């Protein structure tokens, strides 16, 4: 039987998704379980095993030749372990070995979730056709990944491109990571909302204090909401410009929940980027919204597994 499919896992603090994916990035079968994030490590692994069991029960499983995992991080691909910040039961958890055992010894490729989304956007989304790209996830946190020279660049541990923890404000607030003034501390959804509230923004009668509510207020012209998004955009622009200057990317793709704010974020981001990306080789840097949506994690994990098998980013690329 020809093994033309890969199994993909997308593991986050809220849900564990699995899929069987073909060489064109199509998800032929999906399974999902809630992440029991506050339980012990083996309970969390039980949810992963439930997802895998559902995939393995399909007749398509016999066409599956490898497994790709995109996981919330930090991950350590060299050791096959994961330590997701929002899943305290998993610290240096041997996820690759456990998944390999469940699948009867199939090869398993592990990358961070930001790298997975980057792989998806480069294979099938907004970064398609670009050999050098930064893809960012701006959400509860800020993550990302790199494509360099036409190939996914996960780095030795699978975390390369983690732009959220570039420091862009040397005297800024301390970040939970231990550094100061990180992009994430300024541009993540919760921090956009926090800054708006501290500045005197008042939520509507529904009491919604999310970044999406701040985005809606900014769209309606609320000056405090506009200012909070402008500050987030400035931090993102500084991080993107630093990355572009270092490795010469030609497109930055913005995804994640905050990325869905659209021009409320992208317009000030492009304006701020013009102030930071001033050297000739970064001046024409394109900024684009992500295209892959909620399937990005699965498609990207599949791309990484296919890339290991074919020596490229994904089969046929």
TrEMBL record:
Coiled coil: none annotated. InterPro entries: ATPase_NBD, ROK, ROK_cs. Gene3D superfamilies: 3.30.420.40. PROSITE patterns: ROK (PS01125). Pfam families: ROK. Belongs to the ROK (NagC/XylR) family. This is ROK family protein. It comes from Streptomyces nodosus. The lineage of its organism: Bacteria, Bacillati, Actinomycetota, Actinomycetes, Kitasatosporales.
């Amino acid at each position: 039987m020809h093994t033309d499919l890969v199994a993909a896992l997308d593991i986050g603090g809220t849900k564990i998704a699995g899929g069987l994916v073909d060489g064109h990035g199509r998800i032929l079968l999906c399974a999902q379980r809630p992440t029991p994030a506050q339980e012990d490590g083996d309970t969390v692994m039980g949810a992963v095993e439930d997802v895998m069991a559902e995939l393995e029960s399909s007749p398509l499983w016999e066409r599956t030749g490898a497994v790709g995992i995109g996981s919330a991080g930090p991950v350590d691909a060299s050791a096959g372990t994961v330590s997701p910040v929002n899943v305290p039961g998993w610290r240096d958890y041997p996820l690759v070995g456990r998944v390999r055992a469940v699948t009867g010894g199939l090869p398993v490729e592990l990358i961070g979730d930001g790298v997975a989304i980057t792989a998806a956007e480069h294979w099938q989304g907004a970064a398609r056709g670009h050999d050098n790209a930064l893809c960012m996830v701006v959400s509860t946190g800020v993550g990302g990944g790199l494509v360099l020279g036409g190939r996914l660049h996960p780095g030795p541990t699978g975390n390369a491109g983690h732009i959220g923890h570039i420091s862009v404000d040397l005297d800024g607030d301390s970040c939970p990571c231990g550094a100061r003034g990180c992009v994430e501390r300024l541009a993540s959804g919760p921090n956009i909302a926090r800054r708006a509230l501290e500045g005197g923004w008042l939520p509507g009668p529904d009491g919604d204090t999310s970044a999406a509510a701040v985005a809606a207020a900014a769209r309606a012209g609320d000056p405090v909401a506009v200012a909070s998004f402008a500050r987030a955009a400035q931090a993102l622009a500084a991080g993107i410009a630093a990355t572009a200057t270092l490795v010469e990317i030609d497109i930055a793709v913005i995804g994640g929940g905050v990325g869905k704010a659209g021009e409320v974020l992208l317009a000030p981001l492009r304006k701020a980027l013009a102030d930071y990306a001033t050297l000739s080789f970064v001046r024409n840097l394109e900024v684009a919204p992500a295209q892959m949506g909620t399937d990005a994690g699965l498609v990207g994990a599949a791309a990484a597994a296919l890339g290991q098998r074919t020596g490229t980013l994904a089969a046929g690329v």
